[in-house]
Amino acid sequence: KYGMLGSVGSYTPPSHGGKYKGAGVGPSPNYSYSACVAEVTCDPESGIYRVDKLWMAHDIGQAINEKLVIGQVEGSAYMGLSEAMMEEQIYRTGKDNPGGLHKTPSMLDYKSLTALDMPEIETFLVETHDPEGPYGAKEAGQGPLLPIMPAIANAIYNAVGVRVDEVPITPEKIYQGLKELKSGKPGGSGVIGRVGPKKFPKITFPE
Fold first, then answer.
1. Which of 10, 146, 152, 168 is the most exposed place for a label (fewest CB within 10 A)?
2. How does pLDDT run across 155-200, given as a tens digit for each residue?
3. Model pTM?
4. C-alpha of 165 from chain center
5. CA-CA distance, 73 to 40, in Å (whole number)?
6. Which domains does the chain have, with CATH numbers?
7. DSSP 3
8. Omega cis (within 30) before 98
């Protein structure tokens, strides 16, 4: 009557069949889908912005514990927001210090959002019964963080016309794009108002 409901089981994924490195990563009985809409306010002069609200929708299959699932989705939103806005892997180049060392090796230097930085989040659980998942459930771990970054980038583009194609999306990068739009001259990306890498690595995908 007052105990915890639990279950024990196991699952063996099917053989992936690929002969290339990494072919066995990610086999799953089912896959979930997530969507995000972001509302941002961005200063068209400085590029400083804030995220006002997120709307999250996640394909959860069957929600066994609705409150815990919502907590997982909103926790993923926190991770995605931190990655979109400030988290960054920066390494020393070796010119003045030993190369390859991380510039922000501790949580005192590596910045991430706090509870006070979080916007309002409205979460929608899209429930279906998946025959392969436990009791019809799907994952709600890291999946919901994936649409956060493009949602923020698209909202900023919609607000001020600057396309940032890399994370973190910082005010400095937005300001660079704003300067390009005013001058009519492209920056490092070669496209006016676009901030990011010049090109993507050429990758040959196996058939």
1. 10
2. 999 999 999 999 999 999 999 999 999 999 988 888 899 999 888 7
3. 0.81
4. 13
5. 20
6. 34-160 (3.30.365.10)
7. S
8. no
Instruction: Find, among 9, 27, 10, the residue nearest to 18 by Cα.
Output: 27
3-state secondary structure of 141: coil
The residues, ordered by sequence, that sit 6+ positions from 182 with a Cβ below 8 Å of its Cβ are none
CA distance 164 to 162: 6
CA angle 162, 201, 16 (to 5 degrees): 115
Tokens representing 77 are 């939103």
Share of the chain above pLDDT 90, in %: 53
- Which residues make Cβ contacts (< 8 Å) with residue 56, sequence separation at least 6? 34, 35, 36, 73, 74, 77, 121, 122, 123, 124, 144
8 Å CB contact between 129 and 62: yes
The answer to whether residue 146 scores a pLDDT higher than 80 is yes
Instruction: Please check whether residue 181 is in contact with residue 161, taking contact to mean a CB–CB distance below 8 angstroms.
Output: yes
DSSP E strand boundaries for the chain = 34-42, 49-61, 120-127, 163-164, 194-195
Q: What is the pLDDT of residues 1-27, one digit of tens each?
A: 678 888 887 766 556 556 666 666 655
Per-residue burial over 169-196, b = 16 or more CB atoms within 10 Å of its CB, e = otherwise: bbeebbbbbbebeeeeeebebeebbbbb
- C-alpha distances (whole Å) from 4 to each of 1, 10, 143, 189 are 9, 20, 27, 55
